[in-house]
Amino acid sequence: MPSNLRDHKRAAPDAGKAWETVVALRRRGRKQALGFPLELPLGEALLTIARGGGWRVEPDPPPEVAALLALYLPLALVPHGHGFVLAHLAQSLDGRIATTGGDSQWLTGEADQRHTHRLRALADAVIVGAGTVRQDNPRLTVRHCAGDQPVRVVLDANLTLSADRDVFRDGAAETLVLAAADHVGGATRLGHAEIVPLPRDGERLAPAAIRAALARRGLHWLYVEGGGVTVSRFLAAGALDRLQIALAPVILGSGRPSLQLPEIAALSGALRPRVRHVPLGGDLLVECVFHD
Ligand SMILES: NC(=O)c1ccc[n+]([C@@H]2O[C@H](COP(=O)([O-])OP(=O)(O)OC[C@H]3O[C@@H](n4cnc5c(N)ncnc54)[C@H](OP(=O)(O)O)[C@@H]3O)[C@@H](O)[C@H]2O)c1
């Protein structure tokens, strides 16, 4: 950073610039090990990141920029090649992610929807279960923010989905279907998507095997976008580093459940992760940290 830029009074950065800096940092981290301390321009301000992730912006940024950096910098700084899995679910106050018929668009507001696009942009791969592709026909691309398209991964052990789903035919990003090897036969493609056979673990594909198969393809930072069954299986297997629950101020009273884990007999068996709370528009994001 030239000294004249260090010294003159700099204009405060806005959230758009801050997100561009997060994306630039993630791109750099994907290509090479990040050297610390790191200095990056943030509009006319300067972002300094220390080894260990501590950071500061000079001059002091507006609160919305500080909040954005606090939420996304730790996610952008995950070292390349280091396995990292984050899941996100949008749910009602009574723990539902959709109506019984499957309507989930949109439980949470625009800020959380933009947040999910930002998570896609940070991830190497976005993972969804077959139920979500069947019900929502999502594109799983980055559209509401700047950033790179993740590889799209659909879990469909028994290859139940048809090739007419958008993710299999739009060619918008590389797409993989993970299926049980005993069900794949000689099939190699579903529309544009590549079918990847994995060993079956009972009725399922083990999250550890999913992580390992994706890691072999250079996909380490994984974003599990839903639905409830898929996220629950990762959580039950101890395969999540972080879980983000976006709580919408809505009560459905019925509908598809968010997390479902094996029954516990006493509260001492409950998971008690470290959490932080982040307001997202009219919703509240609760981030659970299972592993640092
Ligand atoms: N609010 C939100 O954040 C959010 C996000 C996404 C989706 N949704 C909503 O959630 C609903 C769908 O969610 P859902 O919980 O019913 O289903 P889901 O998690 O999308 O899909 C579950 C199915 O995916 C396959 N699958 C998942 N994990 C697997 C594994 N480890 N190994 C093998 N197969 C695996 C299985 O398919 P098979 O049973 O065929 O083997 C499983 O039944 C939709 O209504 C959608 O709109 C809400």
Helix content: 25-40%
Low-confidence parts, pLDDT < 50 over ≥5 residues? 1-8
Give the strand content. Answer: 25-35%
Using only C-alpha atoms, the radius of gyration works out to 20 Å
Order of helices and strands: HHEEEHEEHEHEHEHEEHEHEEEE
* Ligands, deduplicated: NADP nicotinamide-adenine-dinucleotide phosphate
DSSP helical segment count: 9
Give the N-to-C terminal Cα separation. Answer: 31 Å
Instruction: Give me the side-by-side strand order of the main sheet.
Output: 9-10-8-7-6-11-4-12-15-14
Mean pLDDT: 94
**What profile does the largest beta sheet have?**
10 strands, mixed
Structural class: alpha/beta
Number of strands: 15
What is the molecular shape?
Answer: globular
Fold and architecture overview:
The protein has 292 residues and is α/β, with parallel strands linked by helices. The chain has helices spanning 3-7, 15-31, 63-76, 110-122, 130-136, 166-169, 181-184, 207-216, 228-236, and strands at 38-42, 45-49, 55-58, 84-91, 96-98, 125-129, 151-155, 175-180, 189-190, 193-198, 221-226, 242-247, 256-257, 274-280, 283-289. Strands 9-10-8-7-6-11-4-12-15-14 form a ten-stranded mixed β-sheet, with helices on both faces. A three-stranded antiparallel β-sheet has the order 1-2-3, covered by helices on one side. A hairpin with a 2-residue loop joins β9 (189-190) and β10 (193-198). Residues 1-8 have low confidence and may be disordered. The chain binds NADP nicotinamide-adenine-dinucleotide phosphate.
What does this entry show, briefly?
The chain has helices at 3-7, 15-31, 63-76, 110-122, 130-136, 166-169, 181-184, 207-216, 228-236; strands at 38-42, 45-49, 55-58, 84-91, 96-98, 125-129, 151-155, 175-180, 189-190, 193-198, 221-226, 242-247, 256-257, 274-280, 283-289. The chain has 292 residues and is of the alpha/beta class.
